[in-house]
Amino acid sequence: MGRKKSRPVRAAGTASAAAEADPDAPGPSGGTKRAAKGEARRDVRVEVDRSTWGLADADHRDVAEVVLRDVSVSADGEEALEEAFGASGFSLRMLVRDAPEEGFRMGQWPVVPSDCVLLEYVVVRGDRQEKHELVVSGCFDGPDEGISGLAHLVSLRFVTLRVQSLRAFRDAGEAKVESFRVRVEVMEGAFSACESLLEVARHPWRKSLMNMMAWLRPEVTTSAAIYGMDGLGVPMDDANADFTPKSDSQFDLAAFYEAVKPSINAEQLEVGLPDLVPQLRPYQLRAAHWMVQREKGNILHHEYVNSAPYCVPIDFIHKNSRMFYNPFNGNISLQPEPSPPYVSGGILADEMGLGKTVELLACIFAHSRPSSIGLSISQNKTEMAQIKRQKVERVECVCGAASESSAYKGLWVQCDVCDAWQHADCVGYTPKEDIHFDNTAEDVASKNEKSDKKPGIRRKKKPRCTIVDTEDKYVCALCLELTEAAQTNIFSHATLIVCPAPILAQWYSEITRHTRAGSLKVCIYEGARNLDLPTIQKIDMTDISTADVVLTTYDVLKEDLSHDFDRRDGDRRFLRFQKRYPVIPTVLTRIHWWRLCLDEAQMVESSKTSVTEMAMRLHAQHRWCVTGTPIQRRLDDLFGLLRFLRTSPFDTYRWWVDIIRDPYEKGDRIAMNYAHNFFREIMWRSSKDHVSGELQLPPQEECFSWLIFSSIEEYFYKKQHATCMDHAHQIIRSLRNDDNRKESTSDSNALLNVYLSNDDIAKLLVPLLKVRQACCHPQVGSSGLCSLQHNPLSMDEILQVLIGKAKIEGEKSLGKL
């Protein structure tokens, strides 16, 4: 169905309103609209705010001084200047010529040529100040984006201009200007519009501010100024070198690991670990010492990391004050952004096989929760009725009954919190008073219509049975659990380890094998789905909270997400059909863990999965990512780990992309150095090559035994080789045809960066795999020979099969002649 389009709303400050039907009528900002062929354009005049002109020089927030060019003076401009300069009879305004009408939509501001933006010095005459006499006008010397952004900010009263020097003289009877200088001052409105330097909301004026700062203060937009690495070992020629992104460039994983590897001379753990069975190697002692120091907060920040790229200081002209600028979104502030919270934890990313499990166990033994703290429970006294439960009269019994049934002849009981009716026999409720059936259902119903409901009164959902009133209070098991969950925070000394389900048993056996018997209490949490009764849940929660190590899986996290939703946001999602059984809340989010470790942490790289959402809801003092492959394909894989560790502000995707990922992938050397030092602080990565001298392994020996094919094997191998070679040639020819089609639209530099995709590589490896299998035995692989009974064949039997296949192929060839 078609719809009528309404006229768009324009919000571009004082110069956003369009002129009316008359093409020559002045607009609300003094502009004139002209209908050009194909596009409407108009002149826009922006009055410069004068509210700060009377302040002392030291009180101004001037960020730059601009000298105007192509200054023109009126015939009697010298007398007008002498008469009005310094008084209240003059003003400044900016004239934007031929501004496209479409550019002012939705708060935007068009980019116009710099010659079309003029600064006019106007003298106001008359008793009512109705006459404006133009005295001096000039153009700004700068890029189109910066000058247009300045006009936009002036129109919003975020920036003002103030005449600093204006001198006129006559030369051969012609008025000229010796110098026309203006100061650019940031007004209070600009700072009020920014809630924080890290505000992610996008506004058009912030882009204008970024363009203006790039023009007026280019020194604060360099990588050296942004990342705070000027003079810290990076040559300025390389730091300021321009770089162009390469669309086909691949991430150099080996170079990244080499840049962030720890020093082999780092300190080692000196604490004795009598409960740990294996003797740690030097690289494991260094890793365990680093983990303990991360948790204790004793890691000294490198000066690279202390710099905040999103908080660049900018001194005002008078040097007595400064402001702080975020070059990635254009936010400004008079106060620096608070330092991000310390990350108590990190990424343990030792290469597979170096013993990350033992390193984690060493950290558990070396740094446990202080015994003075112990297991603490904090109570928040709240009213029972404040929990988020659906207060609707219904039947919801623990036995699964969701409606009344004539088969049940016993007593019904109603919860005072959620109004749910349950079988008294099922919940074990026994009234304290004797039950007297004095009132019928109709009497109670009429009584309830005349009076409000009081706490403790039992009402039947459908008045077909006898209703009994009692003053006893009853709360169902689920409401009781929800209330306890909302009021209780358990601070445990346990370490929660989340791992994939296939290696859960391996984790348990590794802990048992590497620790002294009885030194650690290990508990396996199988999920809230397996907890049926509240008493069982309480016992399970007690065991979990008092354990030293709790093991669970990512599948359990995924399943418990729905159980945590009931605890936080109410009874349940409003589904089409009512659930028959109450949802048991999970205990994982009710415990504040001492340490939380995610094994194979690449499982939480995606921020949209249920596992990641549940992992983010867990509370812990120390958070660790344990993985041998923190990066699988590209640098962006690390964002999920940073989000779990809560490494502010890089746990927000925009700042991760703007500050680290994009500059790194573009090749900015200073940004790459900043990223390397940042990850060197929070990630520990040792490779086998790096610690080969500490592995204490015997030297590797290579023994070659050359085998000779039998005549039958040689025949089969050559036949398979010819078939696979023809197949590979077909694949290569198809790839060449694709490259030839792309060559017409690609330049020579792009062709150098062309690489095979994973699908292309897989197609080429299939023929090689068949040839390798033919070396082993003619029956190996899907392309090998097979018998009807699927039994191994002897060489004589293989010869008969080959002879039979050769006869069949020969008969087919003769049939085609």
TrEMBL record:
Gene3D superfamilies the record matches: Tandem AAA-ATPase domain, Zinc/RING finger domain, C3HC4 (zinc finger)
Key words of the record: Metal-binding, Zinc, Zinc-finger
Helicase ATP-binding domain boundaries: 457-648
Biased composition (Low complexity): 11-20
GO MF, one annotated term: ATP binding
Transmembrane segments: none
Protein name: Helicase ATP-binding domain-containing protein
